[in-house]
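Annotated sample (chain length 217).
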Amino acid sequence: MNRRHLVPALIVLFMATAPHPVAADCTPAIAGNDTSGWNSSRRTFLGKALGQTFFTVDTLISRITVWRYPNNVHYGGDRLFVTPVDTVDYAPPKPITQSILLSGPVVFVIDSNPPGLPIRMDFLLDPPLALPHPGMYAFFVQREGCDAGETAIIADEPGRYAPGNYWRTGQTSFLPCYLPSADVWEDLDLCFEMEFCRGVSTPVHGASWGQLKVIYR
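Output written by the structure step:
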């Protein structure tokens, strides 16, 4: 059976205690596609954003982490987006970039320490992002300002993360910068790590289906 046809609810994601500080009333859990099998990468260019669909049973995201290719040094920023996914009309499920659940934060990471390692980029969400419900979503990383620089994010090819896959958007040369439509998918997965907050009293960034809107920067 093709791994893209697996039912996400049957996928048991790896969970572990998170090493990052979290709110006192939050029990953290970790899921994602680790870096142990990375053998490829994809690059941003002129507004092209790199994305990954994912399935979650948790609804409070406190951190999303990706890694740049070793020695992919740059002094600019990279912006995170989180979007819903159309699981009905497209196979594989397609991110809906016109409806943005989260825009930002922007992170600035020049290089790894020591140099020569995958360059970790932590997008910390404080307060956590509250997803509307369990299910499939997507995140994207876009070069801030949509310039011609290349942020290279490591991946494994073919992909090992059965619940989702890699998508990329089109390019844009117009300002203000925005998140273009997702138009291409490939059988690979970005390496990523997500920290979920299991707690009911933590303040959150709220987002409901009735409140979704396009966010332009």
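Annotation: Residues 3-211 form a domain with the Jelly Rolls fold (CATH 2.60.120.820).
Annotation: The chain is about 0% helix and 40% strand.
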